Here is the input.
Amino acid sequence: MIDFLTQNVNSDYRFIKLNGCVYHVKNNTAVITFFYAEQIASNLGNLQDRLEQQYRAKIDPDVRLVFEYKKAYTDELLLKMEIKKFLTRNFSILTLALDDEDIHVQQTDDTFKINLHVTAQSIEYIKNSKPFAAFVAKLHDENFYTFEFFFDVKKTTEDDDIRALEKLERYMKDTTAADDTVKVDKTLRVKNVEYWLGKPIKERPVKVEFIRVNGEEQTTAGEMKFLTKREYVARVIAREPKQSRSTEAQTKSYYTFVLDDNKNRLQCVFFPTDKTLAKFEKLVNGTVICVTGINSERNGRTSFRVSGVSFCEMA
Here is the structure.
């Protein structure tokens, strides 16, 4: 389908991008989503028929197809808000140190130029991180513009440090006050919870926004998105000979995904055992699940390490 959209003879489709396809097993339905540019909005109806015929010719006729089209819209203010949200959620070092004036966005024709003013120690860390690379790739995939990022060193003074401390104190007070006022609305309502793997879900899940980095086991729920299988090399003790304590390298798999409760998102990671690997591989994007685990911070990034998964429905 990507080839069809990018063929020169199909120049009308250069302003349409395939976003994804999610197959729902229970109701035998495939939901296919596209992004389209504003300049073809008036002609979209004429393009849809031919595009959808391409799918119907290749997919089992018994499968129900649902097509969704989303307008790709970006302006300077919206992009600035999106960038700040991403940086403060993925890099804890910037949560309190990044101000609105540290992000400058300028549009020239089909290009957005973004200047980020951050401390010297943050620049290389952000530029070389996988979340940042994925964020930039997502911007390109979901829009019809070119995005260029530039980094400038933000010099701090003693006054800046004092203001940062004052900002931290206000933040801590606001967080404490918020916790005291929303206790009745912290939990998520779920139904038909069905145990799947790992630790059984025993507690009622809380909303993603109330998951804390406190080293304690917590439970939340939402829709699984951006499921990705990754690999790492582990050193394990060789079984033979028994007298030897030598180690050998083994390639093992782990998974990362985002849990979305329709209001907030949680970055999750799951390290399966040999017994749970086959089960976890059956999970797909769009599945609604309850998870239990521990939220921790490492190398400036927060992730929820999952120890148990159950199927559920959002009430």
In short: Helices lie at 2-6, 44-56, 76-90, 120-127, 130-141, 158-181, 274-280. Residues 202 and 219 are 9 Å apart (CA to CA). The chain has a mean pLDDT of 81. DSSP finds seven helices and twelve strands in the chain.
